[in-house]
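Sanity check

After download, print the first record. It should look like this:
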Amino acid sequence: MGSHILFACPPGCPRDQFRPLAEEVLLKLDQGARFEDMVEQYSQDEGTKQKGGRFTFFMAEGEPQISPPFLAGLFEIEEIGGYSTVVETQFGFHIIRLDEIQDSYYRPYEEIREEIISRLEGEYTELAAKEFRSRFLLTDEVRIDGEAMEEIFAPYKTRDAR
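Expected structure tokens:
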């Protein structure tokens, strides 16, 4: 889990004007400035600013919802409480702090048994339904036998149609 200070600069803004400020704040942090104070003063991420810059979820490598440069910056931090270099993403510049590491683990089979069974049953039902429906799809080889159709519909014809 991590925290960050965001110097917002979406695509098209003059990025060379924001990097020096981010570098200056990182220097202050390295010299002992309190991270939460820097968040309050500089961060432009309203979602995390009220929480001292802290994210409320753990991030894993390759997380599709998180910008790859941000994740790279987070995972390069060597110790809890350490800071990244200034990281540039499509949102602007970030200073990231590593707050916590949670080791990955596997849930015990007993805990997930019912979930596995439910998923497999759902998957089987979906595949069986697709296979059943596929038997009724018309292909280019389908030919309508006019004589057979006349014979099938003969009992349903009205007198006027005969």
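If your output differs, re-run the checksum step. Summary of this record's structure: The CA atoms of residues 40 and 50 lie 8 Å apart.
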